[in-house]
Design goal:
The chain is α/β, with parallel strands linked by helices. The protein contains 17 helices and five strands. The protein has a five-stranded mixed sheet with strand order 3-2-1-4-5. A hairpin with a 2-residue loop joins strand 2 and strand 3.
Length: 457
């Protein structure tokens, strides 16, 4: 029987994206060919990603090589043996690098969850993929800004109002260096997802202009898509002599993209988007009683429906975007509801162990850790094994949690972190009742899922 040749995938990238990126790729290809190995190399040069690795390429690969001096997201390679080095090492010793990759052990799979998250991310296409790219790059600014502002309030709720104090400085850093960049980053990386690097400057310009007139995250989303598709088509339409192609991504496309996008934002889009955003803001801040409960119920159910999928992410993106407009209640409902499914399933395995296999009981312990960290995907193994019983139960628990959070008027100023950020002063308001909302939803989830599931033989 003929032996099946090993398959490798690689990513190469140097800071300038010109020479070493392609030299490293060529060196790896020659070394692999000499050993009769199959390799596909994704190059990330000055004109963007080329020969892009597909989901199938990664799935079939026996090992992964990252030869890069720039940031490369390794999340999509979860579960694969991986070696990460500087680009020069691939040029100097490609054969040795291949040996190291084939001898490497798989990445830590504590949570098949992370692999599932990356699979979903890579499967996302079209507008959803572009929007989620923008949101993922925005989140670190939101987290940092929200926590720094909350710390400033720990010195006294009015302490940040006194100019020159430490609390004032923290508040300024959080508000300007954190929250201040949220909207431009959101728009910039939506455009980046569509048009690669040349889209970043036009997208951020669109976000900045939207933010300056109060168009908020809605204006940033529209501006990001506008900038991205504008630059994408300009790149296709504009043809320069080969000797001048190098100036297109650093001069021609950013210049035309920023100029045209900016003019459209200022003269056409900013005013109507600002009006829509103001209306949404007024409606949300005016929610009381039954209306707030209904919104929380819907957001909570969405968070549990597909546990990190498009419906979950739609509720999350909506709530995260509102943080820049100082509307904090939906974010609280969404995080609480996202914590409930894995926590509820952990509790279910404790309350009725005979309804679960030994493997499921072990998975329940991991789900508890993921749940308190606001990683809803911790519920996926249970839902995949028994969707018609598990999904309705976790949706019910999360919907109740979201409704209670809104009813209690809980506010959350950061978009992630789970219980780890809750003890910090002023990150969440009405902390006691917020905890009650999470506990109630967790108990409902556990009782319902155990009511629906039969005992294991």
């Amino acid at each position: 029987m003929a032996l099946v040749a090993k398959k490798l995938v690689a990513v190469t990238s140097c800071p300038t994206g010109i020479a070493h990126t392609y030299m490293a790729a060529e060196a790896l290809q020659k070394a692999a060919a000499a050993r009769q190995l199959s390799i596909k190399v994704e190059t990330r040069g000055s004109i963007g990603a080329e020969n892009v690795l597909t989901d199938e390429d990664i799935r079939e690969a026996d090992a992964v090589i990252i030869a890069a001096d720039t940031a490369v997201d390794t999340g999509r390679f979860a579960g694969k043996p991986l070696v990460k080095v500087g680009v020069s090492e691939a040029i100097k010793d490609p054969a040795g690098l291949i040996d190291r990759a084939l001898a490497a052990k798989p990445q830590d799979l504590v949570a098949r969850v992370e692999e599932i998250k990356q699979e979903r991310k890579s499967q996302a296409t079209g507008w959803y993929k572009h929007l989620m790219t923008g949101v993922s790059y925005m989140i670190p600014f939101t987290v940092a800004g929200g926590i720094l502002i909350a710390i400033s309030f720990m010195f006294g709720i009015e302490a940040a109002a006194t100019e020159g104090t430490f609390a004032y400085v923290l508040n300024v850093i959080g508000g300007q260096a954190g929250f201040g960049f949220m909207i431009p980053i959101l728009a910039g990386f939506i455009a980046y997802s569509i048009a690669d690097r040349p889209g970043i400057a036009p997208g951020m310009a669109a976000g900045f202009l939207a933010n300056s007139v109060g168009a908020g995250f809605l204006g940033a989303i529209v501006g990001g898509f506008l900038a991205g598709y504008l630059v994408y088509y300009l790149n296709k339409w504009i043809r320069l002599p080969r000797t001048l192609e190098g100036i297109k991504p650093v001069l021609v496309l950013p210049l035309l993209g920023v100029g045209i996008t900016g003019l459209i934002m200022v003269y056409v889009l900013n005013e109507p988007m600002a009006a829509i955003m103001a209306g949404l803001q007024n409606w949300l801040t005016g929610l009381r009683g039954g209306s707030a409960v209904v919104l929380g119920f819907i957001l909570g159910a969405m968070m549990a429906f597909d546990m990190g999928g498009p419906v979950n992410k739609a509720a999350y993106a909506f709530s995260t975007g509102l943080l820049a407009s100082q509307v904090y209640e939906p974010m609280a409902a969404v995080m609480a509801a996202g914590m409930t499914p894995p926590l509820g399933l952990f509790l279910a395995t404790l309350l009725a162990p005979k309804k679960y296999t030994g493997e499921e009981r072990e998975a329940g312990k991991a789900a508890a850790v993921l749940g308190i960290s606001f990683i809803t995907e911790g519920a996926i193994p249970f839902a995949a094994a028994d969707p018609f019983r598990v999904i309705p139960a976790i949706m019910a628990g999360s919907a109740v949690t979201g409704a209670l959070s809104m009813l209690f008027g809980c506010q959350l100023k950061v978009p992630h972190g789970g219980i780890w950020v809750l003890p910090m002063g002023n990150v969440v308001t009405n902390l006691g009742m917020y905890a009650v909302a999470i506990v109630v939803g967790t108990v409902i989830t556990a009782l319902l899922v155990n009511l629906l599931k039969p005992n294991k033989e």
